[in-house]
Design brief:
Elements lengths: L5 H5 L9 E6 L3 H12 L4 E7 L2 H11 L3 E4 L8 H11 L4 E6 L4 H10 L1 E6 L4 H12 L4 E2 L1 H12 L7 H4 L2 H5 L1
Parallel strand pairs: 1-2, 1-3, 3-4, 4-5, 5-6
């Protein structure tokens, strides 16, 4: 399509496929089972696998080649941001949708910088979760309103906290 955004071109949608293939990654079995039960009711979504930790999420994403990885940020073994980076490095076309209880800046910004296309909170409704899966599958961002507000505030008024790299000269940083 001539009017697609760059993001949509980088992330081709499920058009032409029967179902959106989803990998569910969450540390808690009861949460995974609840999500699986919810997504089984959707005729255009197929859960192709699940993972209980970051290492397993990476391995399953590479092996199963899902369209969307629905991932909690609090998982053992591999750091949440590292898991997102490694999934995106191994499968650049996969879309990562974070589903978590934590909406603080220290979780949101690193996850998005690592390559998450969506970030929704676990207090979202089932229909909001399904809608977010469809959005990221189309290459669109899906952000919980509280998360979107934090991003807008950060862009409008950058944080007073500067990174170490910003405080050092290039030579000091290299040293």
């Amino acid at each position: 399509m001539a009017d697609q955004t760059d993001d949509q071109q980088a992330f081709p949608s499920s058009q032409g496929r029967d179902k959106i293939r989803v990998l569910v990654a969450d540390e808690h079995a009861i949460v995974r089972q609840g999500i699986l039960a919810l997504l089984e009711t959707e005729s255009d979504i197929q859960v192709v696998g699940e993972a209980q930790d970051g290492r397993q999420a990476i391995a399953e994403a590479l092996r199963l080649q899902p369209d969307v990885v629905l991932m909690d940020l609090v998982m053992p073994i591999v750091d949440r941001v590292e898991a997102i980076r490694r999934i995106r490095a191994g499968r650049p076309q996969v879309r990562v949708l974070v589903l978590t209880s934590f909406g603080g800046e220290d979780q949101v910004f690193p996850a998005i910088k690592a390559g998450a296309l969506g970030y929704i909170l676990k207090d979202s409704t089932p229909s909001e979760l399904v809608q977010a899966i469809h959005q990221v599958d189309r290459g669109e961002s899906a952000l919980h309103p509280a998360v979107a507000r934090k991003l807008v505030q950060e862009l409008a008024q950058p944080s007073a906290r500067a990174s170490a790299a910003d405080l050092l000269t290039r030579h000091e940083f290299e040293v």
